[in-house]
Design goal:
The complex is a heterodimer of chains A (342) and B (415). By secondary structure, chain A is mainly alpha-helical. Chain A has 15 helices and no strands. The longest helix of chain A is centred in the first third of the chain and has 28 residues, at 20-47. Chain A is globular and about 70 Å long. Chain B has helices at 12-23, 60-76, 98-110, 123-136, 166-170, 172-178, 192-207, 226-234, 247-259, 274-280, 282-285, 300-313, 319-338, 343-350, 402-405; strands spanning 3-5, 41-47, 87-93, 116-119, 139-142, 159-161, 183-189, 211-218, 239-242, 266-269, 289-292, 354-355, 363-365, 372-373, 376-381, 394-400. Chain B is globular, with a radius of gyration of 22 Å. The chains are: A mainly alpha (342), B alpha/beta (415). Chain A binds chain B through residues 49, 51-52, 55, 148-149, 151, 155-159, 161-162, 175, 177, 246, 250-252, 254-257, 292-293, 295-299, 301-303, and chain B through 1-2, 49-50, 54, 59, 90-95, 97-100, 102-104, 106-107, 110-111, 123-124, 127-128, 130-132, 135, 147, 149, 154, 190-193, 195. Chain A: This is Branched-chain amino acid ABC transporter permease.
């Protein structure tokens, strides 16, 4: 079967593409959103405690990687902690044993995550819906058990301690989380950009087609499994970058990284932020990480109750998530405005 | 962040005499020069405030630390280097997750200017905090984590391990062997803690002349132990030792009692807190032996402490509460002697120090691996009929001298 990656599927016909005024309005809007995003990314460690800022960045990219599958392939991976965790352990071990600068360790971790994603993905993409979620969960649990038992390498329950943050001997970056943030955020933004590129490429269109009607896409001559597998592995790589950043930032890796609750948390973030939007994930990540941080010092002992209630409220009231709802409101306002003008 | 100024009972006598002396010219020598960072001492309490370890330490440890501050101020009066207004306690919840513990510890040191972080249950969380302490060159005194790693391969100059460890927990087994419990079967959860415990228990039993028939691994966490209990009983041991802890221990003990194995073999528990006995009921545990680091009703001194604690919290203290008290008190005492809260100066004060307080009996803060050694106890859970009051659950059958409970400086530790 020959698949032509260069042939985009027909997209929704949009009048605004031909209206110069609407196109200008759109580019202004994009510029505005871009500026807000840039300010948010650069300003984050000024507003929140820098190690928390790094956490938000890592979870944000992790949520983006899940959204890539959930929102654009329609596959809910309930085992993404496997890639986050495998990368965290690999990055930690690389940094510890070879003393390489941490970006190399993080990229190494991401590659390890992609390698492990190939066999898992190969089996998982043959199923969809709940079965896909269960297969990914099962593999993630398997990896959890391996990490738990392989004490000599992973440290078992105690985890991997003393992961260094070496960066060409620049002490400011190695010791100060504030400066460290600005280095890792480059990796995070690169990962987010990659996800954005994937979604907005002809390849991404095929993924959306698979999500909407996989039988029809197959009938059109696309190798559905291959597309899904590539998306799965790319998503694992992006999750891997996030996991590597998280491990290096904390200076240790624990079994928590591979725990199923980690998979659950990132799905929560994605849904809370708005799935299928890509940028909802970071919003959800920021909300959850900041909330957990506040609650940890509040003396209130029902952290699960709060995050759980938010999730329920979100699912009941804002199906599209925070970002999705906001985007929808803006779109509606715009439509109303355009109507009044005409 | 809940930053609570230690709103303690001021020693009224102290206040009164200070007022009186304010008018006099001479009076006692002025308080010794002190050199405190940020002009105050901040004690961070980082533990489980919402999960399975909440009862055994949790928020009540703050009360214990407040008691230590009160006692310190009363002891030194106007000679105290740190005044009441200069002591602050900050508290945070680790949720027993190492990454949360790690971030919270960083925040405590950086933002709340904590000079020391106390407690931190769950070994993985403890190791994560020890790592931060080493990086920031601030103190961490661990109380409720069990791992010997803290004073082993992961040891560092800024971390002390105050109360107990997996090796010490196994020492009580020797006493059981001497009482006739010669053959053992061990059931352990298959993760780092369980594996360490089995190693320590096997060594302790064999050193005392007993034999371990078999060690059976169970999944962790686990709900159904019945097959493992049956298998453990099949070799007809005198003692069945379980290394399960927390919720798993509760399940194990319930199923052990229901299975009827209780009539054939004695139960020994690796790690148990008095709060576990309290929550499941003394009936379920009666006859069980375990190693305890401290027991509230052991002697008059402990009882006095426990009575004060009871007034403030409505519960009796676990050994973790007493250890938090002890660590906070000895820390303040070291500041008193050093005249500063500088971490390196405090370490110098603490290293090699011989201590006797309500928690530490024949205590010594070992310089080699920063393990705090002290007398420990072999405890047996009383029969329900012998319980005279609430929380009166344990009978101390033997004391394990400090040098036996914590025998050697950990060879894996290099500072």
């Amino acid at each position: 079967m020959s698949t032509d990656l260069e042939t985009p599927l027909p997209t929704k016909f949009d009048v605004s593409d031909f209206d110069p005024r609407a196109r200008r309005a759109r580019s202004i809007r994009r510029l505005l959103l871009g500026t807000i995003a840039l300010v948010a990314v650069l300003g984050l460690p000024w507003w929140v405690y820098p190690p928390i800022a790094v956490d938000i960045a890592a979870w944000a990219l992790f949520a983006i990687s899940v959204d890539l599958l959930l929102g654009f392939v329609g596959a809910l991976s309930f085992g993404h902690a496997a890639f986050w965790g495998v990368s965290a352990y690999s990055a930690g071990l690389i940094a510890q044993n070879f003393g390489l600068p941490f970006p190399v360790a993080i990229v190494g971790g991401a590659i390890a995550a992609m390698i492990i994603a190939v066999p898992i993905g190969y089996l998982a993409v043959r199923r969809s819906g709940i079965y896909f979620a269960m297969v990914t969960l099962a593999f993630a649990q398997m990896i959890w058990f391996v990490a738990n038992q392989w004490k000599d390498v992973t440290g078992g329950e105690n985890g991997l301690q003393g992961v260094p943050k070496s960066f060409f001997g620049i002490e400011l970056i190695e010791t100060e989380a504030f400066y460290f943030y600005y280095v890792v955020v480059i990796l995070i933004v690169a990962g987010a950009w990659l996800a954005w590129r994937i979604v907005n490429s002809p390849f991404g269109r095929v993924l959306v087609a698979i999500r909407d009607n996989s039988a029809r896409t197959r009938a059109l001559g696309y190798d559905v499994e291959k597309y899904k597998l590539i998306a799965f592995v790319l998503s694992a790589g992006i999750a891997g970058v996030a996991g590597g950043v998280f491990a290096i930032s904390h200076g240790f890796v624990s079994l928590q990284e591979l725990d199923w609750t980690t998979s659950g948390k990132v799905v929560l973030m994605t849904v809370l932020g708005g799935m299928g939007t890509l940028w909802g994930g970071p919003v959800g990540a920021a909300v959850i990480v900041l909330l957990e941080d506040r609650l940890a010092t509040s003396g209130f002992d029902g952290i699960g109750i709060i995050t759980g209630s938010i999730f329920i409220l979100c699912v009941l009231l804002f199906r599209r998530g925070i970002w999705g709802t906001a985007k929808n409101l803006i779109d509606r306002a715009r439509a109303g405005y355009a109507k009044r003008r005409s | 962040m809940t930053t609570t100024r230690s709103g303690l009972v001021t020693v009224t006598g102290f206040a009164a005499s200070a007022l009186m002396l304010a008018g006099c010219a001479g009076g006692p020598p002025p308080a010794p020069e002190s050199d405190l960072s940020n002009d105050k001492v901040v004690i961070g309490l980082l533990n489980d405030q919402s999960g399975v370890y909440k009862d055994l330490s949790g928020p009540n440890s703050k009360v214990a630390i407040e008691m230590a501050i009160e006692d310190y101020l009363a002891e030194y009066g106007d000679q105290a280097v740190v005044t009441e207004d200069q002591i602050e306690i900050v508290m945070a919840d680790t949720q027993n997750k190492p990454d949360v513990a790690n971030t919270q510890a960083q925040q405590m040191y950086d933002r709340s200017n904590a000079d020391v972080i106390l407690d931190v249950p769950a070994s993985s969380a403890a190791l994560a905090v020890a790592e931060v302490a080493n990086q920031k060159k601030k103190l961490h005194i661990n109380i409720s984590a069990a791992t010997t790693e803290l004073t082993g391969a992961a040891c560092n100059p800024y971390t002390f391990h105050w109360a107990y460890n997996t090796q010490m927990l196994a020492k009580g087994a020797a006493g059981v062997v001497e009482d006739g419990g010669e053959t053992w079967s061990l059931v352990y959860p298959d993760y780092a803690f369980g594996q360490d415990m089995v190693k320590s228990f096997t060594a302790a039993v064999e050193d005392a002349g007993g034999t371990v028939n078999e060690a059976i691994a169970t999944p962790f966490p686990n709900d159904n132990f019945s097959t493992f209990i049956t298998r453990a009983a099949s070799t007809d041991p005198d003692v069945i030792g379980t290394m399960a802890a927390g919720g798993d221990l509760i399940n194990f003990v319930k199923q052990f009692n229901q299975s009827g194995v209780r009539d054939q073999a004695q139960l020994a528990v690796g790690l148990m807190f008095i709060t576990d006995i309290h929550s499941l009921g003394v009936d379920e545990f009666s006859g069980t032996t375990f190693t305890d680091a401290w027991y509230w009703n052991y002697d008059e001194q402990n009882r006095e402490f426990a009575d004060r604690f009871l007034d403030l919290t409505d519960t009796r203290p676990s050994f973790a509460h007493a250890a938090n008290y002890s660590a906070a008190y000895q820390y303040l005492d070291a500041i008193q002697r050093a005249g500063t809260d500088d971490a390196d100066a405090i370490i110098e004060e603490l290293e090699g120090l011989k201590v006797d307080d309500v928690f530490l009996r024949n205590g010594e803060i070992r310089a080699g691996d920063h393990s705090v050694v002290h007398d420990s106890y072999v405890a047996k859970v009383k029969d329900a009929a012998d319980v005279e009051e609430d929380w009166d659950y344990e009978e101390i059958t033997a004391t394990i001298p400090a040098e036996d409970a914590f025998p050697d400086v950990n060879p894996n530790c290099s500072m």
